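Design review, sub-item: ligand-bound model
Attendees: FS, YL, KQ
YL presented the inputs for the fe (iii) ion complex:
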Amino acid sequence: MRDASVLDLFGDPPQVARTELAEGAVVLHGHALVAAPMLLAAVTEVSAVAPFRHMQTPGGHRMSVAMTNCGNAGWVTDARGYRYAGVDPESGVAWPPMPEAWAAFARDAATAGGFPSFASDACLINRYEPGARMTLHQDKDEIDFAQPIVSVSLGLPARFAFGGLRRTDPVRRVTLAHGDVVVWGGPSRLAFHGVDALKAGVHGATGGYRYNLTFRRAR
Ligand code: MD6
Ligand code: FE
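KQ shared the predicted structure:
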């Protein structure tokens, strides 16, 4: 047995409860609880430079979820379609860089979820207010579907709907709470998923909002 000493501070992270959603998709409950203050502080920094905005879908609808990005590429949608863009279309300048600690967190979480050596280059930051939701969709604007997605939930809880590879496949629902991380790849990489309308509430870390960070390899 290893000596119970200060070394444990630098040892393996504690095992957290897991929910397997499907092959290649797992919820690591509470995996981001320790990192949450760091992650939220950087959300404030990123959004001071690249503010949250309600983008338009290609069909002309205003998204109820407000979004911003950091990293080498940012996910955007407008009348021209869904895509990754190297600059923030609102300002015409590059997205804020991905904080080092974020990339390291995402890599570690991916490893814990079964996908070692994940190198994210983009993080989409979603902000949900009461009533905001995300309809069923696939994340398919990235170049390399061999890379997983790491998704971090912060603040108010939400009901996450996870389906199959066809829009009409049955969905399973799971609550994502503050600090939960979903790691998602392999045979689940193109699974349909969405978020039910957020219920109003107050969370000690985020007030009336839920934030979701999704780390991707976009390019
Ligand atoms: C959200 N998440 O939790 C939205 N996409 O607010 C996503 O759309 C998502 O959690 C791909 C992989 C994991 C996700
Ligand atoms: Fe998604």
